[in-house]
Protein 1
Amino acid sequence: MKLTQLLNGLEKKNQISVDTEQLKIKGLADSSADVAANYIFVAISGFRSDGHDFINDAIDKGACLIIGEQGLSGLPVPYIQVENSRKALGILAKNFYGDPAEKKWMIGVTGTNGKTTTSYLLKHILEDNGHSCAVIGTIQNIINGEARKSSNTTPSSLEMHRMLAESRDDTAIVEVSSHGLSQFRVEGVQFDLCLFTNLHPEHLDYHRTMDNYFQAKKSLFDHLKVNGCAIVNTDNEWGSKLANLLEEQGKTVYATGKSAQSSIRIHGFNTDASTITLEENGKTDLICSPILGVHNMYNTISAYTAAILSGISKEDVRESLLRFDGIDGRFEINTLPEGQKIIIDYAHTPDAIDNCLNTAKDCGAKRIIHVFGFRGDRDISKREEMLRLSASLSDQYVLTLDDLNSVSYNEMVDTLRQLQSDQGNQKGTVLPDRTLAIKQAIEQSEPGDWVIITGKGHEAYQQSYSMNTTSDKETVCHITRTLDNIRLDAVY
Ligand SMILES: CC(=O)N[C@H]1[C@@H](OP(=O)(O)OP(=O)(O)OC[C@H]2O[C@@H](n3ccc(=O)[nH]c3=O)[C@H](O)[C@@H]2O)O[C@H](CO)[C@@H](O)[C@@H]1O[C@H](C)C(=O)N[C@@H](C)C(=O)N[C@H](CCC(=O)O)C(=O)O
Ligand SMILES: Nc1ncnc2c1ncn2[C@@H]1O[C@H](COP(=O)(O)OP(=O)(O)OP(=O)(O)O)[C@@H](O)[C@H]1O
């Protein structure tokens, strides 16, 4: 592709020569390791290293043009200085791959909790009604029906545009994280629908304040196509604020919530039957939420609204919801022959833990035994609240290891012990080996009890534990001898 086409929309700080404009570009790379002959290398100043330090490597590998933020001169190949390299990468990737988002029905989902659940509910409804849906998100990326490993919730803009270009699906659902937004990973992607699930304290190690975190999430809505719609859960205070701000900007907002002003108004939740009564334009509708918990009912409402705005009839959406068979690691229930329920859930925020434990209570759990831990290198400000909630809502809890990341085993165990002694109560114990913690919880459970294992959900273990299993699901299967894969028990 000719460089002039690629640079469309890019603000340059320096002029480039007519000869440079004629360069034929074979590819783009933001990692020197991926550079080949006639590539553009975009140097990004990162959190761990600085791409500008790898410019010479990139040139040795065949880069014919460098883009970066520093005022550099004297390079053996042309250099373009830009204000923001991550943003530049998105613009170049969009041009290089021919603006793939423009050719699809694009749906972006953001919020602290519920992005994955809402995305999979929506994917199911759309596919059940004849569409083909790509999903780019936390568990995996699904392109043309094939699952690919995902290492970030929202991949870099380069991978994003590449995957969208490879996808022959008519629709793409993208989970958009706040990190992704603040790092311009959806630069050049415009959405037909943008969904906001909720905002709760999380990632404050990165964003510092809730307002910064909110601003990052809000920026997704700058990516709405001209006729695009925002779908916002206004029962969350930040959602309500967002809906007002977007309306002030003249955007089309579908507010979902209990208030009378909502476009889709919630009249009531029936937690026993897992149903929701909704009202739109004076007409009420009863829909089933196929995953337990009021929090999952909110996800169902977001998916329902997005499906309707995608052109599916209410009747078809209602029918499709009845055929949904669950998501890995999202309130997955296994009922033991003796009557205990074992739940595996990805909850790793105070709000999510609150929701999970309360769902078990609402569903009549005799006793709740909660197994959980804290991730190394992640926002530590939420730990006390997570423990406080578990100590008050569960009947017994076991503090155990979650991913250590770069934190040492001893440091995390000391942290667990310290937190238990400062904030815990007599219901709790510390048992670092996650597999033994799960075993102890299951062994101590009695018919009618719910054992709730949170934090890892669908993910594989990073550490090895004494049982040699690779995930919570495998551990539970191993302990309970449930050899069949655990699947979500029917809610209805
Ligand atoms: C802290 C953070 O967000 N880092 C993200 C960021 O990495 P970075 O650009 O800072 O990378 P870096 O290692 O410092 O390298 C800087 C540059 O030098 C280049 N380089 C480096 C080495 C080399 O030899 N040659 C070279 O060219 C790198 O390719 C890069 O372009 O940009 C990368 C590309 O987009 C991301 O993969 C990476 O996510 C890391 C892996 C990560 O763990 N991020 C988490 C915090 C995250 O983003 N999480 C959210 C979900 C949060 C949630 O809701 O749970 C997500 O969307 O996944
Ligand atoms: N709407 C919701 N409100 C509060 N908590 C929720 C909601 N939906 C899901 N959760 C909780 O959050 C956990 C993660 O859910 P999900 O994976 O759908 O969210 P996510 O936004 O994709 O999370 P992440 O950004 O961490 O990948 C669930 O296992 C559940 O405990």
Note: The chain has 17 helices and 21 strands.
Protein 2
Amino acid sequence: MLPFSRVAVIGLGLIGSSIARGVRQHMPSVRVTGYDADPAVRETAVRIDLCDDIADTAGTAVIDADLVVLCVPVGAMGAVAAEIAADLPADAILSDVGSCKESVIEAVRAALPDAVFVPAHPVAGTENSGPEAGFASLFHHRWCIITPPEGTEPLAIERVLEFWRRLGAEVETMEPAHHDRVLAVTSHLPHLIAYTIVGTASDLEEVTASEVIKYSAGGFRDFTRIAASDPTMWRDVFLANREAVLDMLQRFSEDLTALQRAIRWGKGDELFELFSRTRAVRRSIIDSGQDDARPDFGRSHD
Ligand SMILES: NC(=O)c1ccc[n+]([C@@H]2O[C@H](COP(=O)([O-])OP(=O)(O)OC[C@H]3O[C@@H](n4cnc5c(N)ncnc54)[C@H](O)[C@@H]3O)[C@@H](O)[C@H]2O)c1
Ligand SMILES: O=C(O)C(=O)C[C@]1(C(=O)O)C=C[C@@H](O)C=C1
């Protein structure tokens, strides 16, 4: 049996539009209503026939939904929760897709203390944003982490887990604080490093901008993909997951200083030992089947 029959998606960017497409592909009898604060996004959503209905307000989008998924930047979750407060049906399940969980839970709880809230985070994405960037297979074989606050009804959790399984994801539950620490090192810190290195290269006086573009064939090019990710989304993530990110950044800086010393003092064996360990990490990721969902890695879109 399908876990839901009327889904409202608030925020129709990369993730919201991928959910809408995924529902249409994998649960075609489910009605999808969408809403986005940006009128141009709503227009695009109508033009590309993303949902069964595009509402003019967040309230009308949720009025008869049995699942509402908030797909807006994490800094906007609290405001959107407040916007739907008067119209959210009492028996609807509320969820979200935010990249960090503790701050989102706090903001949503403050606006909707009585809602059945099952927070979720699909660990899948690309550097692109907007309604046309999404694709139905984005979540296939990728993790979706559910972080239900203590006391959440088990049936509500199970329905959200089943929703994500049907979108093709592997599911896992985790404590919100633990989620935020894990993602700080696996996702947030890598983005911070990419933003830094691309910024540093483009600031170097002795290397011209055209040289940076011309010779960005290997490592640097991979960093530029990550550093092209949405500025609003990532500003919000770093501000919302501040403590965990600062903690991981401290550890990273210490390790970087150790590497700096190894290079300065010609300690080749230390470099070799680290690079061998990191190569093994890459190989275990490939072996675990968590390969890349992005289109340029050869996986088909819809
Ligand atoms: N991009 C990724 O790789 C990725 C992966 C997993 C989770 N996430 C999370 O998903 C959420 C959405 O990210 P995205 O990549 O889809 O971003 P996006 O920029 O593609 O889309 C966000 C959409 O939300 C809309 N929006 C902003 N404020 C709003 C409001 N108050 N009311 C209604 N609509 C509003 C914007 O107009 C935009 O269309 C974020 O919380 C992000 O942390 C992103
Ligand atoms: O592949 C990418 O482009 C991503 O950045 C996806 C990515 C990640 O860091 O893994 C980004 C943010 C999310 O919250 C989840 C997934």
Note: DSSP finds twelve helices and nine strands in the chain.
